[in-house]
Structures are given as structure tokens and as C-alpha cells.
UniProtKB/TrEMBL annotation:
This is Phenylalanine--tRNA ligase, mitochondrial. Coiled coil: none annotated. GO terms for cellular component: mitochondrial matrix. It holds the Pfam family tRNA-synt_2d. SMART domains: FDX-ACB. It comes from Serendipita indica (strain DSM 11827) (Root endophyte fungus). It comes from the Eukaryota.
Amino acid sequence: MIVTLGRGVRPRALHIWTRRYSNGIEGVTYNNVFYPPDEYTNIRSSILSHLGRNIYLQKDHPIAIVRSLIEKHFGSSFVPITALPPIVSPQQNFDELEFPLDHPGRRPSDSYYLNKDWMLRTHTSAHEVQVFRSGIPKWLLSADVYRRDEIDRSHYPVFHQMEGARVVEPSEMEDLRKENDELAQSLAAVNIQVEDVSTIGEKNPYQPWHNPDHAKLVNDNLKHSLNGMIYALFGGLATHKGKGPLQVRWIDAYFPWTSPSYEVEVLFDGKWLEILGCGVMQQAALTRSSVPKDNVGWAFGLGLERIAMVLFQVPDIRLFWSKDARFLEQFSDGTVTQFKPFSKYPSSSKDVSFWLGEREVHENDVYDIVREVAGGLVEEVKEVDRFTHPKTGKSSRAYRVTYRSMERTLTGEEVNTLHNDLGLKLIEAFNVQLR
Ligand code: DAH
């Protein structure tokens, strides 16, 4: 069963540029709604063009394969939810989840805003309150999420998350105890080693208003369920490589809408890889969903790209957006296969440096301009220099841009044109002076 909530329409790629605000970015019309620009507006067309691509729903796509593997693992009692439009209010993305007013994630330098009232969700948690309000007790929600971030092989401003959650009534607690015993038994029978260095206590407490027995049962259920899911995803890989048990580590974390909160890491190729965040739902957030106050819930959120990159050995996050058959035809629903690189095309690095004008420029503003100019042809951008002249007080910045196509060799001329365009766009957007 696929449940559609809210407006329920699959976003269509329909954008009409209309009005401009003084920062030069235009207002957006999306799905026939016009979002008037204001001082928050910071979405450019390179980002908007991703709305509605829905690669996480595309059959045989690695992102969709990971999604279905997790859905299959949890079984039909967890309702899969997809197709929720990415435009949400800051209330949904932050306030309903108890984010403090000064949380950095709220800044337009970190998140994409259509205007001060509407933004692109930065995480699938933005829908938790809404989904619980609809009365579904166990669900898995997958969606595209958007964040302003650096540019390298593992960061892309659009990626995918899956949110899973469960709420338990007091009358179900005895069954939960049995379920936990069963889960613990099946985990004991497989090749997994769980190191739990989390410390429930003052810094990461159970909530005082919960029945302690119920909170512990839900907390244990969260841990067993996620260890089981992680084994289902990564267990084969660990055993296949003959490297002993799959090693998983639970550590304390902080999220405004859960307590206790955890992060879970998996040891992969000798490195601890952070896989997900989770915890026992803050009762304030559940109450906002009209869930009765004696119910207790858990929630987790994970990044599908990060898991897919490891499972399928995909070396660059941009490949997930490729329409190249040489990429897409390597994968098929229900199976995890290692990506075979079709070729590694040469890269070309170029520096751009400039004096800032009157306006302060955030590095994420620079990265967005690079995306705007080069799209999928940029592999990495690094800030290589930043200084303020002691006499004039003028500030200068330098960035090294690495261009590389995943699909062909870029000509020198093509790279020069892109790089010249980048300079012009930086001047136009921020009134900088190239050096
Ligand atoms: N939304 C968090 C993120 O994007 C992940 C997360 C953490 C989701 C804890 C949860 C949770 O549901 O309980 O980093």
C-alpha cells in the first residue's frame, strides 16, 4: 500500500520566473503556486530543476533499491510513504520538532528558502508530526531533501533520506516485550557485533513524563529494530569480504525532538561510517500530532546516498543523477551489485580569486553559483585562500574548482568557457572584483 498525504500531488517540474527581489534572485512559481521573493529567497534554477526528478522512486535506481530493501526488511506493517512535495514551512521543518530559534540550520546560508514562509525540507523529519497526526502508527517515509553545503564527491545539495517511526500504545507494551526478545534472539544468531557506548543519563535522559518501563521497551525496540535493519543491509557485505562480524556502534547524540538520542555507525573498510540518527520521540512533538500522551514512540532518519555509495561502491554522488545508460543499466531492483566504472575521464582544476565588494559572501553562496554555471560538471570546490588586506581592509577569497564529467572528456575550451562564465556570474551576483 502506498499512502499519499497532504497535497498528494507528485511535484511537476513547472517553474516560471517572474518577479525579482533586490538580491537578484527571482520569485518562483511551482505547481501553480507563486512564492513572492523576499530577503530569504535563495533558490536558483540549478536546484529547482531537481524538484520532481524523483530518482528514489525510479525502478532499478540504486537509491530506490536501498529504499525498497529497507521497506522489505521492515515488512508490510510499516506503511511506506512517498511523494510528499519538498516545499514545507519552517514551522514543519524546525518548530514542530522543537528546534531552538537560534539553530544554525535555520539560516538562509544553510538552507534553501523560497521566501521566509516556505523552504525546501532539509530532512524527512519535517513530516513526522504531520504523518503521526494522520494516525499511522508505523511508517517509513522517503523523500528528496535539500541543503546548502560544500562541493565534493560525497556532497550534493539534493539528496535523499528515509525516516522511519513507530508509536506504541500502553496496551501493546507486553507484545513489544515479546517482540524485543525475539529480535534479540535473531540478532544473537547472526554475525554482528554491536558496541553500545551510549550512556543514558543526565546528558541524554529518558523523559521524566514517560512510564520508565514503557520508555525502556520502546528504546530497546528501536535498538533491536535498527541493528536488524543494518545487518540486513550490510551483513552480506561484511561476511562476503570474510572480515569477521559486522561491527556497529551506538553513540550518544542530540536531536531537539528525541530523548534519548543516538547516532549509529558501521565499520566499513576500517572507518566508522555514520549511518543514521534516531531516538525516543519527545512527547511534546508527539502531542502536537494528537497522539495520546501515554503512547511512546521512536524515530530514525538515514541518508540513502551514503548507504548506496557504500553498498554499490559508487565513487561520486553525482552519478546518482546520471541519465547515462552505462550507469543506470548496471542495477536492478532487489539486488546489490558493485558499480563498474565505465571510465574515469580527466579532470581540470582552475582557480578563481576575487576581492569582495560591500557585501559579505558566504562560501555556500559561491558554491551555488558554481552549481548554477557548471551543474553536474563540477566535482569539487575548495577554498584555497582568504585574507583581509591590513591597510585597505579589503577582503579577498580564492577557490579551486575541479571540473570533471562523469560521462565524457571535457575539452579545454569547454572548461575555459565554464570558468569564464563563473567569473562573470560571481561579479553579477556579489559585485566582486576578479583578481
Ligand atoms: N533528521 C536528522 C538529520 O537529518 C536525522 C534524524 C535524527 C531523524 C533523529 C530522526 C531522529 O527521526 O529521531 O540529521
